[in-house]
Amino acid sequence: MPASIFGVLARLGLQALVTYDGQSVFPLAYIQATGCFIMGVGLALKEPFGRFYGPLYTAMTTGFCGSLTTFSGWQVDIFDSWVNSGQFHRGSVRDVVDGITKTMVTLLLSLGSLSFGVHVCKLVAPHFPVLRPPGKIFRYTLTIISVLTYAATFPAYFRLSPNFRHQATAALLFSYPGTLTRYLLSIYLNPRSKTVPLGTFTANMFGTSLLGTFHVLQGIYPPLSPAACSILQGLGDGYCGCLTTVSTFAAEVSALQAWKAWFYVAISWVIAQLLLLVIMGSSFWAGHVREQVTCNF
């Protein structure tokens, strides 16, 4: 629970930090690289974490890194390049180039950051002290704090200023449900196939479809009410952002054999873009939905 919340906050904060006029790199590149680097550190520390307290490893990798990185946001960003949703003064060829750039740079950064995280951790891991497993009091206390942390997101949404809802507090409400959905899908579906991790694949495709739908609803004119817009933004940043993941995706690609890895990457990318073509493309070209967000926050 707290790992999901902190992952969302880190993603939103980092995105706000690296979004500015004249930026040289698209904002999601920083987010995916950071999450994959931390995932690499976590993978290298899997054995020590397991000896100390296994749930902390799950919190770091599945919870924090999975919520920090976002597959659905990556795919929607690519599709926005194809359709030039920013209304930049450029030709269709450069729209294609921009989409390919976001595809290749994200893949290279994610896989490279994951490997770099593993490498760095292996260099410093021998210097970490061996910790004794925690007792029952520590484990129960940590569980209670975790539940209370997520419970605090509800008063934060209702009691803090409505201006914060579309920025953060709405996303915090849906962070843990998104992570939990992905975690359960991975447990039940990943063992069913040795070619493609079906759980992560299903989570990424489902989350991408939902995010595309939410973007369509945010582009309806006349726009929705501020409360509805905040909920949609929260569902996109919180639920879809935590349901889909690039860090786990990169770790699975690295673990697969050559042809299986390329097949997993290709089928994930192609199906995600086809889903967005059906959901977002058909809505845009029918003329009833604007490509830019019309929601009033």
List its salient traits.
12 helices; globular; mainly alpha; 77% helix; 297 residues
Structure description:
Belongs to the fluoride channel Fluc/FEX (TC 1.A.43) family. GO terms for molecular function: fluoride transmembrane transporter activity. It is a multi-pass membrane protein. It comes from Serpula lacrymans var. lacrymans (strain S7.3). The chain crosses the membrane at residues 25-45, 52-74, 104-125, 137-158, 170-189, 196-217, 261-280. The protein has 297 residues and is mainly α. The protein has one domain (2-286). It contains 12 helices and no strands. The chain has helices spanning 2-18, 27-44, 46-68, 71-83, 92-124, 136-151, 153-159, 165-189, 198-218, 226-243, 247-255, 258-286. Helix 1 packs antiparallel against helix 2, helix 1 packs across helix 3 (46-68) and helix 9 (198-218) runs antiparallel to helix 10 (226-243).
H and E string = HHHHHHHHHHHH
Q: Count of helical segments?
A: 12
Radius of gyration from CA coordinates: 19 Å
Q: Count of DSSP E strands? A: 0
Helix proportion:
over 70%
Q: Give the integer mean of the pLDDT values.
A: 92
Largest sheet: none
**What is the domain total for the residues?**
1
Overall 3D geometry? globular
Quickly give the structural class: mainly alpha
Unreliable stretches covering 5 or more consecutive residues: none
Instruction: Name the beta content range.
Output: under 5%
CA-to-CA gap between the ends? 27 Å
Give the arrangement of secondary structure elements.
Layout: H1 2-18, H2 27-44, H3 46-68, H4 71-83, H5 92-124, H6 136-151, H7 153-159, H8 165-189, H9 198-218, H10 226-243, H11 247-255, H12 258-286
Helix pairs in contact: 1-2, 1-3, 1-8, 1-10, 2-3, 2-5, 2-11, 3-8, 3-10, 4-5, 4-9, 4-12, 5-11, 7-8, 8-9, 8-10, 9-10, 9-12, 11-12
